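Example: Aminoglycoside phosphotransferase domain-containing protein.
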Amino acid sequence: MQSIAVASGCFEQVSQILFTAITINAINSCCFEQPREASLALRTALQAVTCNQGAFHCTPQLRGREPEVSEAAHQPSCSTVIKDWSENSRHFIINEKLTGETLNIAWSRLSPDQRRRIAKQTADYITELRKLHSPRIQSLTGETVYSTFLFLAGPTAPHGPFSSDQELWAELDKALVNVPKKAPQRLQTMMPAATPYTFTHGDLTNVNIMVDKGNLTGIIDWETGGYFPVWWEFTSASVGLGQEDKDWKTLLQEYMPQFKEANEFWLDFFSLSRYPKLDSRATAFFQKIKE
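Written out as structure tokens, the predicted fold is:
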């Protein structure tokens, strides 16, 4: 989970990010690599939120504005800050443990209807966060982002910020340096526009979804969260880490905003990045550009 800095002129947007994230229990235990002041802004917002019989209230109003959160039949509970401290230029926040268990543990015991309900609840909360936009691909603090499956040339390295499709493509193209030039040139023409840059979790794997009694109780592990291409939340859900996770994400995608063209682009990108190893998709791509 990244820290959130309250920069001049963007307090209202950051406040809404904080409040919305809290209502879906974005934070379980967090380590912040950004300055202490930034993470303290998050803690202050956490302490301003109270729970009352499943409903969420922001008290007092943040800068005179009550953030709007959509109604839902089942609302996760608030998570209380237990402790925060600094250590070696890093700031830590620990919250109460969320109710329930991770979806990968519960999956085999859930009925088809329960699985669908959890998928819809997850998509609904993610849709709320998708209302948040940025002028750049960047973290919540305006700094670099991390993504294992988007930036294939450096999956554990920081990337960005990026302000255009050209800048984004230049970064993606680093994973294709050994591929015959015609393939990346064709692939670039297939990349959908990345704007509006949209707040994205980016790792909705089943180990990051908390559930209890057939309902969503939290979404955890937001360390790769930030502003990404508008299509990345949907596309990143194409990556299944095992059969059960694949089944979960296939179901989740049914309830998410659809970006199937972007999904096809990314699948081609992923296959080409493994060159000279060619799977059936990469082979078909090379055949296509010969025609």
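The first strand starts at residue 29 and ends at 32.
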